[in-house]
Amino acid sequence: MSKVDVLGVKFDNYSEEEFRQKILAQFSEKKATFVVTANPEIVMEAREDQELLQMINEADFVTPDGIGVIKAANTLKTPLKERVTGYDLFEFLMKQANRKEYRVYLVGATPEVITAVNQKVQLEYPHIRIVGLKDGYFKEPIEAVAEDIYQAQPDFVFAALGFPKQEQLLNLLKKLDLPAVMMGVGGSFDVFSGQIKRAPKFFQQLHLEWLYRAIKNPSRFKRLLIIPKFLRAVKKQVKANENTSH
Ligand code: UDP
Protein backbone atom coordinates (compact mmCIF):
# COMPACT_ATOMS: atom_id res chain seq x y z
CA MET A 1 0.00 0.00 0.00
CA SER A 2 1.56 3.32 -0.97
CA LYS A 3 -0.60 5.63 1.22
CA VAL A 4 -1.49 4.92 4.82
CA ASP A 5 -4.33 6.86 6.43
CA VAL A 6 -3.80 7.76 10.07
CA LEU A 7 -6.75 9.80 11.35
CA GLY A 8 -7.23 11.40 7.96
CA VAL A 9 -3.58 12.22 7.25
CA LYS A 10 -2.35 10.22 4.28
CA PHE A 11 1.23 9.13 4.82
CA ASP A 12 3.48 7.86 2.05
CA ASN A 13 4.67 4.38 2.81
CA TYR A 14 8.30 4.65 1.76
CA SER A 15 11.59 3.87 3.44
CA GLU A 16 13.88 6.82 4.14
CA GLU A 17 15.97 5.89 1.12
CA GLU A 18 12.89 5.78 -1.08
CA PHE A 19 11.80 9.21 0.13
CA ARG A 20 15.26 10.59 -0.65
CA GLN A 21 15.24 9.20 -4.17
CA LYS A 22 11.66 10.18 -4.95
CA ILE A 23 12.07 13.74 -3.64
CA LEU A 24 15.23 14.25 -5.72
CA ALA A 25 13.63 12.64 -8.78
CA GLN A 26 10.66 14.99 -8.64
CA PHE A 27 12.98 17.97 -8.11
CA SER A 28 15.10 16.95 -11.10
CA GLU A 29 11.97 17.27 -13.23
CA LYS A 30 11.78 20.91 -12.09
CA LYS A 31 8.57 20.33 -10.20
CA ALA A 32 7.53 22.11 -7.01
CA THR A 33 8.15 19.46 -4.36
CA PHE A 34 6.44 20.09 -1.04
CA VAL A 35 7.40 17.73 1.79
CA VAL A 36 5.54 17.51 5.10
CA THR A 37 7.05 15.56 7.98
CA ALA A 38 4.07 14.83 10.19
CA ASN A 39 4.16 13.73 13.83
CA PRO A 40 1.21 12.88 16.12
CA GLU A 41 0.83 16.52 17.19
CA ILE A 42 0.45 17.60 13.59
CA VAL A 43 -2.05 14.80 12.92
CA MET A 44 -4.12 15.88 15.92
CA GLU A 45 -4.12 19.53 14.85
CA ALA A 46 -4.99 18.67 11.27
CA ARG A 47 -7.87 16.55 12.48
CA GLU A 48 -9.51 19.62 13.95
CA ASP A 49 -8.91 21.81 10.95
CA GLN A 50 -10.12 20.75 7.52
CA GLU A 51 -7.98 23.34 5.75
CA LEU A 52 -4.77 22.14 7.38
CA LEU A 53 -5.68 18.54 6.67
CA GLN A 54 -6.25 19.31 3.03
CA MET A 55 -2.97 21.20 2.83
CA ILE A 56 -1.06 18.21 4.20
CA ASN A 57 -2.81 15.72 1.97
CA GLU A 58 -2.09 17.86 -1.08
CA ALA A 59 1.66 17.91 -0.32
CA ASP A 60 3.84 15.86 -2.62
CA PHE A 61 5.28 13.77 0.18
CA VAL A 62 4.12 13.12 3.74
CA THR A 63 6.62 11.30 5.97
CA PRO A 64 5.90 9.64 9.32
CA ASP A 65 7.97 11.74 11.70
CA GLY A 66 7.64 10.11 15.08
CA ILE A 67 7.33 6.67 16.51
CA GLY A 68 3.73 7.43 17.49
CA VAL A 69 2.72 7.48 13.83
CA ILE A 70 4.48 4.17 13.19
CA LYS A 71 2.70 2.60 16.18
CA ALA A 72 -0.63 3.98 15.01
CA ALA A 73 -0.15 2.52 11.51
CA ASN A 74 0.62 -0.89 13.08
CA THR A 75 -2.48 -0.69 15.26
CA LEU A 76 -4.50 0.10 12.14
CA LYS A 77 -2.95 -2.98 10.48
CA THR A 78 -1.58 -0.83 7.68
CA PRO A 79 2.08 -0.68 8.74
CA LEU A 80 4.44 2.00 7.49
CA LYS A 81 7.97 0.99 6.50
CA GLU A 82 9.87 3.21 8.90
CA ARG A 83 10.04 6.49 10.71
CA VAL A 84 11.47 9.27 8.56
CA THR A 85 12.33 12.38 10.52
CA GLY A 86 12.48 15.92 9.28
CA TYR A 87 15.92 16.35 10.79
CA ASP A 88 17.42 13.36 8.99
CA LEU A 89 15.94 14.43 5.65
CA PHE A 90 17.14 17.98 6.25
CA GLU A 91 20.72 16.78 6.84
CA PHE A 92 20.59 14.56 3.78
CA LEU A 93 19.30 17.38 1.58
CA MET A 94 21.89 19.83 2.92
CA LYS A 95 24.65 17.36 1.97
CA GLN A 96 23.09 16.98 -1.44
CA ALA A 97 22.91 20.77 -1.82
CA ASN A 98 26.59 21.05 -0.92
CA ARG A 99 27.56 18.37 -3.41
CA LYS A 100 25.56 20.00 -6.20
CA GLU A 101 26.22 23.64 -5.25
CA TYR A 102 22.51 24.28 -4.93
CA ARG A 103 20.82 27.52 -4.01
CA VAL A 104 19.27 27.27 -0.54
CA TYR A 105 16.86 29.58 1.28
CA LEU A 106 16.62 29.17 5.05
CA VAL A 107 13.77 30.74 6.98
CA GLY A 108 12.90 30.27 10.63
CA ALA A 109 14.07 30.18 14.27
CA THR A 110 15.42 33.12 16.26
CA PRO A 111 17.90 35.64 14.78
CA GLU A 112 20.70 34.11 16.93
CA VAL A 113 19.94 30.59 15.75
CA ILE A 114 19.68 31.47 12.07
CA THR A 115 23.01 33.32 12.29
CA ALA A 116 24.61 30.27 13.91
CA VAL A 117 23.07 28.06 11.21
CA ASN A 118 24.60 30.29 8.55
CA GLN A 119 28.03 30.08 10.19
CA LYS A 120 27.86 26.32 10.32
CA VAL A 121 26.84 26.18 6.66
CA GLN A 122 29.82 28.36 5.66
CA LEU A 123 32.17 26.02 7.51
CA GLU A 124 30.72 22.60 6.84
CA TYR A 125 28.76 23.05 3.62
CA PRO A 126 30.91 25.62 1.81
CA HIS A 127 29.50 24.86 -1.64
CA ILE A 128 25.92 25.64 -0.71
CA ARG A 129 24.80 28.96 -2.13
CA ILE A 130 22.69 30.64 0.53
CA VAL A 131 20.26 32.83 -1.41
CA GLY A 132 18.15 33.84 1.56
CA LEU A 133 18.39 33.82 5.30
CA LYS A 134 15.53 35.04 7.44
CA ASP A 135 14.61 34.51 11.05
CA GLY A 136 11.17 33.20 11.82
CA TYR A 137 9.85 36.16 13.78
CA PHE A 138 9.15 38.44 10.82
CA LYS A 139 6.38 41.00 10.99
CA GLU A 140 5.42 41.17 7.33
CA PRO A 141 2.58 39.06 5.96
CA ILE A 142 3.44 35.51 5.01
CA GLU A 143 2.58 36.29 1.36
CA ALA A 144 5.38 38.88 1.24
CA VAL A 145 7.85 36.35 2.63
CA ALA A 146 6.72 33.80 0.04
CA GLU A 147 7.23 36.38 -2.71
CA ASP A 148 10.74 37.15 -1.44
CA ILE A 149 11.62 33.45 -1.45
CA TYR A 150 10.15 33.04 -4.93
CA GLN A 151 12.24 35.94 -6.26
CA ALA A 152 15.41 34.31 -4.87
CA GLN A 153 14.68 31.18 -6.97
CA PRO A 154 16.20 28.68 -4.56
CA ASP A 155 16.58 24.97 -5.29
CA PHE A 156 15.78 24.02 -1.70
CA VAL A 157 13.72 25.91 0.89
CA PHE A 158 13.79 24.89 4.53
CA ALA A 159 11.24 26.52 6.81
CA ALA A 160 11.69 26.14 10.56
CA LEU A 161 8.70 28.08 11.86
CA GLY A 162 6.80 25.26 13.54
CA PHE A 163 3.53 23.76 12.31
CA PRO A 164 1.34 25.09 10.70
CA LYS A 165 3.10 28.37 9.87
CA GLN A 166 5.92 26.69 7.97
CA GLU A 167 3.51 24.58 5.91
CA GLN A 168 1.31 27.60 5.16
CA LEU A 169 4.35 29.44 3.81
CA LEU A 170 5.51 26.48 1.73
CA ASN A 171 2.02 25.87 0.45
CA LEU A 172 2.03 29.43 -0.98
CA LEU A 173 5.31 28.66 -2.74
CA LYS A 174 3.87 25.44 -4.07
CA LYS A 175 0.97 27.45 -5.49
CA LEU A 176 3.49 29.83 -7.09
CA ASP A 177 4.96 26.67 -8.62
CA LEU A 178 8.49 27.32 -7.40
CA PRO A 179 10.59 24.47 -8.84
CA ALA A 180 12.23 23.64 -5.51
CA VAL A 181 12.21 21.10 -2.71
CA MET A 182 10.30 22.79 0.11
CA MET A 183 10.22 21.24 3.53
CA GLY A 184 9.04 22.29 6.97
CA VAL A 185 11.70 21.31 9.49
CA GLY A 186 10.26 22.44 12.85
CA GLY A 187 12.98 22.79 15.46
CA SER A 188 15.76 21.49 13.18
CA PHE A 189 17.66 24.79 12.99
CA ASP A 190 17.88 24.81 16.79
CA VAL A 191 19.47 21.35 16.68
CA PHE A 192 21.64 22.03 13.61
CA SER A 193 23.06 25.20 15.18
CA GLY A 194 23.94 23.34 18.36
CA GLN A 195 21.49 25.41 20.37
CA ILE A 196 19.59 22.26 21.27
CA LYS A 197 21.28 18.89 21.37
CA ARG A 198 19.70 15.96 19.62
CA ALA A 199 18.97 13.05 21.95
CA PRO A 200 21.93 10.71 22.53
CA LYS A 201 21.92 7.57 20.33
CA PHE A 202 20.69 5.54 23.31
CA PHE A 203 17.43 7.54 23.42
CA GLN A 204 17.15 7.50 19.63
CA GLN A 205 17.53 3.72 19.43
CA LEU A 206 14.85 3.18 22.05
CA HIS A 207 12.63 5.67 20.19
CA LEU A 208 12.62 7.86 23.27
CA GLU A 209 13.80 11.12 21.69
CA TRP A 210 10.53 12.72 22.74
CA LEU A 211 11.25 11.84 26.38
CA TYR A 212 14.76 13.28 26.18
CA ARG A 213 13.44 16.51 24.66
CA ALA A 214 10.78 16.79 27.34
CA ILE A 215 13.35 16.30 30.10
CA LYS A 216 15.62 18.95 28.60
CA ASN A 217 12.77 21.34 27.98
CA PRO A 218 9.95 20.82 30.47
CA SER A 219 7.63 23.21 28.64
CA ARG A 220 7.33 20.41 26.08
CA PHE A 221 5.76 18.11 28.67
CA LYS A 222 2.29 19.44 28.07
CA ARG A 223 2.68 18.60 24.40
CA LEU A 224 3.11 14.97 25.42
CA LEU A 225 -0.47 14.95 26.63
CA ILE A 226 -1.40 14.81 22.97
CA ILE A 227 -0.01 11.27 22.68
CA PRO A 228 -2.62 9.40 24.76
CA LYS A 229 -5.35 11.39 22.98
CA PHE A 230 -3.80 10.43 19.67
CA LEU A 231 -3.67 6.73 20.62
CA ARG A 232 -7.29 6.79 21.78
CA ALA A 233 -8.35 8.35 18.49
CA VAL A 234 -6.44 5.66 16.61
CA LYS A 235 -8.23 2.90 18.56
CA LYS A 236 -11.53 4.53 17.66
CA GLN A 237 -10.52 4.52 14.01
CA VAL A 238 -9.71 0.77 14.27
CA LYS A 239 -13.21 0.14 15.60
CA ALA A 240 -14.80 2.28 12.91
CA ASN A 241 -12.81 0.42 10.24
CA GLU A 242 -13.94 -2.94 11.67
CA ASN A 243 -17.55 -1.86 11.60
CA THR A 244 -17.40 -0.72 7.98
CA SER A 245 -15.65 -3.91 6.88
CA HIS A 246 -18.29 -6.23 8.41
N1 UDP B 1 9.56 29.62 15.35
C1 UDP B 1 9.69 30.66 14.44
N2 UDP B 1 8.69 31.57 14.35
C2 UDP B 1 7.57 31.50 15.11
C3 UDP B 1 7.44 30.43 16.02
C4 UDP B 1 8.45 29.50 16.10
O1 UDP B 1 10.68 30.73 13.73
O2 UDP B 1 6.71 32.36 14.97
C5 UDP B 1 10.64 28.63 15.41
C6 UDP B 1 11.22 28.35 16.77
O3 UDP B 1 12.23 29.30 17.06
C7 UDP B 1 11.75 26.93 16.60
C8 UDP B 1 10.81 26.34 15.55
O4 UDP B 1 10.11 27.41 14.99
O5 UDP B 1 13.05 26.98 16.07
C9 UDP B 1 9.74 25.40 16.06
O6 UDP B 1 10.23 24.49 16.86
P1 UDP B 1 9.33 23.42 17.58
O7 UDP B 1 10.23 22.71 18.47
O8 UDP B 1 8.08 24.05 18.09
O9 UDP B 1 8.89 22.55 16.32
P2 UDP B 1 8.68 21.00 16.20
O10 UDP B 1 10.01 20.44 15.80
O11 UDP B 1 8.14 20.49 17.48
O12 UDP B 1 7.68 20.98 15.06
Structure description:
It catalyses: UDP-N-acetyl-alpha-D-mannosamine + N-acetyl-alpha-D-glucosaminyl-di-trans,octa-cis-undecaprenyl diphosphate = N-acetyl-beta-D-mannosaminyl-(1->4)-N-acetyl-alpha-D-glucosaminyl di-trans,octa-cis-undecaprenyl diphosphate + UDP + H(+). Its EC number is 2.4.1.187. Catalyzes the conversion of GlcNAc-PP-undecaprenol into ManNAc-GlcNAc-PP-undecaprenol, the first committed lipid intermediate in the de novo synthesis of teichoic acid. α2 (40-47) crosses α3 (50-57) and α7 crosses α8. This protein has helices spanning 16-28, 40-47, 50-57, 67-75, 86-100, 111-124, 142-152, 165-175, 188-192, 201-205, 209-216, 221-224, 226-245, and strands spanning 3-6, 9-12, 33-38, 61-64, 103-108, 129-134, 156-160, 181-184. The protein is 53% helix and 16% strand. The chain has one domain (3-245). The protein has 13 helices and 8 strands. α8 links the parallel β7 (156-160) and β8 (181-184). The model has no long low-confidence stretch (mean pLDDT 95). A 6-stranded parallel sheet has the order 4-3-8-7-5-6, sandwiched between helices. It is of the alpha/beta class. Uridine-5'-diphosphate binds at residues 108-110, 136-137, 160-163, 165, 186-187, 189-190.
